[in-house]
Design a protein that fits this description.
The chain is an alpha/beta fold. It has one domain: Glycosidases (TIM Barrel, Alpha-Beta Barrel). About 30% of the residues lie in helices and about 20% in strands. It contains 7 helices and 8 strands. It has an 8-stranded mixed β-barrel with strand order 1-2-3-4-5-6-7-8. A hairpin with an 8-residue loop joins strand 7 and strand 8. Helix 3 packs parallel to helix 4 and helix 4 packs across helix 5. The longest helix has 17 residues. The chain is globular and about 45 Å long.
Length: about 220
């Protein structure tokens, strides 16, 4: 039976203060999404100290890779997957963990890029995932085109939906799991249902137990 797990993601480093802010204001995060590298103006990069803090607190890690600004072309998709896998390995992230490519709604996206990312990641120690907006931008069409072209995409990729944004809540007040989805076969196993908390700099999420079991 599928159950759902509450967690957060942040562009900032996880410090004891930030962890306690979430714990005291929203509840215990079962997982925490963090970016693998520092990207100027967007994210601080993850380090082993943070991973240790999360694990010592009983919280799993959800890795995100965002060091790209467009998602066009099979070769570019493969390159992004290669760098994402390299950084995950560098940080000692366990084999079999999904790495979510952060595809923003304003990015150019095509099916070849998605296929390139999935195909390359499939041959690494990690699994392919995509953070995306299924309602705005080009991702939904590009993803469904990729599914039609390559059965491995629907089989392997895990989708993290950014819609609808219902607002940040405490863990116990999280909505029923009901993310917006692309119109083709997909594994939408995580939903960012609340963004930009005013209390702690985090977003709030619900994850399907099938994904939760894979997290590091």
């Amino acid at each position: 039976m599928v159950t759902y797990h509450w967690g957060v993601d942040s562009a900032q480093k996880v410090t004891t203060d930030l962890y306690n802010c979430v714990l005291n204001n929203y509840g215990k995060p079962e997982f925490w999404g963090r970016y693998l590298t520092r990207v100027e103006g967007a994210s601080e990069g993850l380090d082993r100290e943070e991973i240790e803090l999360l694990h010592n607190s009983g919280t799993k890690l959800l890795p995100i890779y965002n060091e790209f600004k467009r998602a066009v072309g099979e070769n570019e998709g493969r390159m992004v997957a290669m760098f994402a896998a390299y950084h995950a390995k560098r940080l000692g992230i366990r084999k079999g963990t999904p790495i979510f490519a952060n595809v923003e709604r304003f990015f150019d996206v095509d099916s070849n890029w998605i296929r390139g990312y999935v195909r390359y990641m499939y041959n690494t120690d990690f699994k392919p995932g995509f953070y995306h907006d299924p309602t705005e931008g080009n991702f939904a069409k590009a993803y469904c085109d990729a599914v039609n072209q390559d059965g491995l995409v629907a089989e392997q990729a895990i989708l993290w939906s950014a819609e609808p944004n219902l607002g940040v809540t405490k863990a116990q007040l999280a909505p029923k799991f009901n993310p917006a989805k692309v119109s083709c076969e997909s594994n939408v196993w995580i939903w960012q249902y609340g963004r930009n908390s005013k209390t702690c700099p985090v977003d709030t999420n619900l994850a399907d137990s099938r994904l939760f079991e894979m997290l590091y």
